[in-house]
Every structure is written in C-alpha cells, then in structure tokens.
Amino acid sequence: MTDPKDNVPEEGEPQVEGDATNAQEPEDLIEAEGPDVELPTDGPAAGGPQSDLSPEDQALLDDAARGMAEDKLSQADRDLVAEMRADMLRAQAELVNFRKRVERDRDANREVVIAEVVRALLPALDDLTRAEAHGDLAEGPMQVIAQKIRGGFDKFKLVQIGEKGETFDPNVHEAIVQLPTPGATAQTVADVVEPGYKLGERVLRAAKVAVAVPA
After folding, report:
1. What keywords tag this UniProt record (predicted)?
2. Per-residue pLDDT reduced to its tens digit, 49-58
3. Where are the alpha helices (DSSP H) in 42-193?
4. Dihedral class, residue 25 (left if φ above 0, else alpha if ψ from -120 to 50, else beta)
5. Short-list 200, 203, 172, 205, CA closest to 107
6. At 190, phi and psi to the nearest 5?
7. Interacting residues of 176 by C-beta distance below 8 A, sequence separation 6+
8. Among 48, 168, 192, 212, who pairs with 187 as Cys (CB 3.0-4.6 Å)?
9. Are the C-beta atoms of 162 and 179 separated by less than 8 Å?
10. How far apart are alpha carbons 199 and 156 in whole angstroms?
11. Spatial contact of 173 and 196, defined as CB atoms under 8 Å apart
C-alpha cells in the first residue's frame, strides 16, 4: 500500500486536490481559460493577399459604399451635397464657355491681323494690275514674280470687287462721280476707276467707280 506521505508534493510542485478522476477534461479547461476571442470575419487577414477584385468590380463596390453612406445622410447634408454638385457643374460649364470665347477671340484677332497686312499691300497689287494693263508683265522674270504675289493673295481668299454694269452698292462701291445718263432707270457702275477688294466677308477697300444715274 502506498504511504500517504508519498503523495505530499515536493517544494515547487503544484498541489493537486482530490482524486485524479475529478480532474477537468481538456474541453472544460479550454472553456475556463478567459473570455472568448472573436475572430475577424471581414476583409483580408493582416499581411494576407490583397483583394482579387477587378478595377471595375472594385469601382462598383466603392459606388455601392458611397450610396449606402449617402442613405445615412440627413436631409440637410443631402441638400448640401446637391448644392455642391450644382456649383461644380456650373463651374465646368463656365470653363467650357470661357474656352470657346477664347477660341472665337483668337480667330477674330487672326482675321483682323491678316486683313490689316493685306490692306497694307493693296497699293502694290494696284501697281501689278496697272503694269499688266500696259503689257509690262507679259513676259520675263517680273511676270513670274507677279504670279507668285497674286498666288499669295489667293491663299487668303482675296476677292476683287467692282465690275462695270453692276448695280451701285454703297457697301462695296465708292462713287467718285455721277454721270446723268438718258434712259437709265437705276444707278449702275459706268466705269471702275480703282478696283476694290474683299477678304471673306470683310470689305478691305471699296471700289472707286463712276456711277450712271437717270438723267
């Protein structure tokens, strides 16, 4: 028989009370060791792989999250968000209109500059016209130069105005003399003293003409 003294624990060993059959089962020990630990259920584990969602799916998920967040907003917050969106759209529209105005102004300024340059060169074009009328440009190097100069004006769509026999128009004609003409029923161009020119819809110089008027 075992001596009860043999069951006395040595110094430093834990004292076991009762029979060994009364020892707690492992399951009981697990339940007794402190409160339950809640395991994370949302999102990837720390240090784990990133989400496998495609950019499109992630964007849909973000939009849904924003929609849920907006559902939780108060009416005042919703009004504020709507006002901010309206301000943003209005600012974008103003920016687009500003860019269009800048482009229109740039085109208009370009047309003005071209018109002023061409207007300054019209006296030289008049000299070419008179030289051609006298046969001075029929041949030789001056004929080639004249053709190149006229080709440069044609690139800017310069149009000569003022033809004999057409109806007098004060918008494109400058009457330097009136000729009473029997049988005339309207004012017409009797002779062109100096041709005029038009660049697009802009009249650079009115044609100087003699006008036949009813006698």
Report:
1. Chaperone, Cytoplasm, Stress response
2. 455 678 877 7
3. 55-71, 75-133, 141-155
4. beta
5. 200
6. -85, -30
7. 193, 208, 209, 210
8. 168
9. no
10. 7
11. yes
User: Across the strands, what pairs with 102?
Assistant: none
Measure the CA–CA gap between 134 and 149, rounded to whole angstroms: 18
The C-alpha atoms of residue 74 and residue 101 are separated, in whole angstroms, by 41
Domains along the chain with CATH numbers: 159-215 (2.30.22.10)
Band (39; pLDDT cuts 50, 70, 90): very low
Give the pair of three-digit tokens for residue 194.
């100096």
The gap between the terminal CA atoms of the chain, to the nearest Å, is 164
Length of the chain: 215
What's the Rg (C-alpha) of the chain? 50
Strand partners, 212: 179, 188
Give the Cα-Cα-Cα angle 173, 177, 182 (nearest 5 degrees): 105
Question: What tens digit of pLDDT does each residue of 115-126 get?
Answer: 999 999 999 999
211 CB-contact burial (10 Å; exposed 0-12 / middle 13-18 / buried 19+): buried
In the block, tokens 């994370």 appear at 40
